[in-house]
Specification:
Distance between the termini: 32 Å
Number of helices: 7
Pathway: Cofactor biosynthesis; molybdopterin biosynthesis
CATH architecture of the largest domain: 3-Layer(aba) Sandwich
Mean pLDDT: 97
GO molecular function, one term: molybdopterin molybdotransferase activity
Bound molecules: adenosine monophosphate, magnesium ion
Oligomer: single chain
Helix content: 10-25%
Cofactor: Mg(2+)
CATH superfamily of the largest domain: MoaB/Mog-like domain
Largest sheet: 6 strands, mixed
CATH topology of the largest domain: Molybdenum Cofactor Biosythetic Enzyme, Chain A
Low-confidence stretches: none
Radius of gyration: 30 Å
Keywords: Magnesium, Metal-binding, Molybdenum, Molybdenum cofactor biosynthesis, Transferase
Pfam family, one: MoeA_N
């Protein structure tokens, strides 16, 4: 029996020794959700020049006392000019004239938005602090500094910062192509009539969605059989992929199709001290002529998704946001297992469990927005006890 941490490390070692993603350079408009392949530095100062944070008057702080003549007017987009002395009416985003060092907001002088005309006189409230309301060149980031680190997932703010730096493309990791194979003689394709004793294949869709959200390209196939030969045929027919994920057929029962098909090929099967998700398989097999890592998850729908969250998602997407929250009610947990329960964040700032322990409770999982971790050694946690919670609602 291995620990969760040991199996995570084994999966990481296996996947990283095979999957070395190429770097692609999509335009920013096509890079949402992609993962940065390299550090990206800004080629320009952000902001690129000293500019005004307010509508107001640009002055020299040490010459702002007493009446001042309004000596000019600059708006956003105007060129950078020399400061002629006095007070220059300046709009938000306009370049601070060279030689001025502070902005006095217009509402500190008169009514908001009402500027004195050029050659009028204004009286500013003293004292004026040098640098006030000036957005200094490079104050967000200096040219040449790292803007985003390798591994960053590109969202709206990251893409906006790249655009603000004038960049048009961005180095991202090629998406991993993941073949998902759901197995089991009892499975039926949603939409088909359900024969007595059959159930619909949930995992092909749920694992595909999980892979897609984690930035991968999911290719799903169902081997609705417990014949090892059928699974081997499906794998032989597959095109090149970076990774294979199977579901089902990995326990110690009589018809363990994945185990029966892949153990002779060198995939190793064993138990992880995890509930759900205890039985796991891991190895490399030949797919489309290339050695390809394969992760074998148990078939229960909750087990396979929890397996994905613990073992694969961190490699593709990084860690989930981790919270430490008090439980809304007490819970028991097996001492020897790391138990992962499904939960929901409450308005009271606690986490409540949704559904029971059993790993077939997919509808309950579908009402959850969190995974609740009850580590090895914990047999009972009381209401109010703080536990580790992963947010899974994105
Ligand atoms: P297994 O891991 O093959 O022993 O399957 C464990 C349980 O999960 C059994 O009740 C299976 O019927 C169920 N199961 C396996 N694969 C799927 C699937 N793709 N969708 C829904 N349930 C599944
Ligand atoms: Mg099965």
């Amino acid at each position: 029996m291995s620990t969760v941490a040991e199996h995570q490390a084994a999966v990481r070692a296996l996947v990283s020794s095979h999957w070395r993603p190429a770097t692609e350079y999509p335009p920013l408009g096509a890079a949402l959700g992609r993962v940065l392949a390299d550090d990206v530095r800004t080629p320009i100062d952000l902001p690129p020049f000293d500019n005004s944070q307010m509508d107001g008057y640009a002055v020299r702080a040490d010459a702002a006392a007493g009446p001042l003549r309004v000596s000019g007017h600059v708006a956003a987009g105007d060129p950078i000019t020399a400061f002629p002395g006095g007070a220059v009416a300046i709009m938000t985003g306009a370049p601070v004239p060279l030689g001025a060092d502070a902005i006095v907001p217009v509402e500190a002088v008169g009514a908001p938005g009402e500027f004195a005309a050029v050659d009028d006189t204004v009286e500013l409230p003293a004292p004026v602090e040098p640098g006030s309301f000036v957005r200094a060149r490079g104050s967000d980031l200096a040219a040449g500094a790292v803007l985003l680190e390798a591994g960053t997932v590109l969202g709206p703010a990251q893409l906006g910062a790249l655009a603000a730096s004038g960049l048009t493309t961005v180095p991202v990791r090629a998406r991993p192509r993941v073949l998902i194979v759901s197995t089991g003689a009892e499975l039926a394709e949603p939409g088909e009539p359900l024969a007595p004793g059959a159930i619909y294949d949930a995992n092909a869709v749920s694992l595909s969605a999980a892979i897609t959200l984690a930035g991968g390209i999911a290719l799903a196939t169902g081997v609705y059989s417990d014949e090892p030969g059928h699974l081997r045929l499906a794998l032989e027919a597959a095109g090149p992929v970076d990774l294979v994920v199977t579901s089902g057929g990995v326990s110690a029962g009589a018809h363990e199709v994945v185990r029966d098909a892949l153990e002779p090929l060198g995939v190793r099967f064993g138990s992880v001290a995890l509930q759900p998700g205890g039985p796991q398989g891991l190895g490399a097999i030949t797919v489309a002529g290339a050695p390809t890592p394969v992760l074998c998850f148990p078939g229960n729908p909750v087990s396979s998704l929890v397996s994905f969250e613990l073992f694969l998602r961190p490699l593709l997407r990084g860690d989930r946001p981790v919270l430490r929250l008090p439980l809304s009610a007490s819970v028991d947990s097996p001492a020897a297992k790391h138990q992962v329960r499904r939960g929901r964040l409450t308005d009271a700032g606690t986490v409540e469990l949704v559904g029971g322990v059993s790993s077939h409770l997919l509808a309950a999982y579908a009402r959850s927005d969190a995974l609740v971790h009850l580590p090895v050694g914990l047999t009972r946690a009381e209401a109010g006890e703080v536990v580790e919670v992963w947010r899974i609602d994105e």
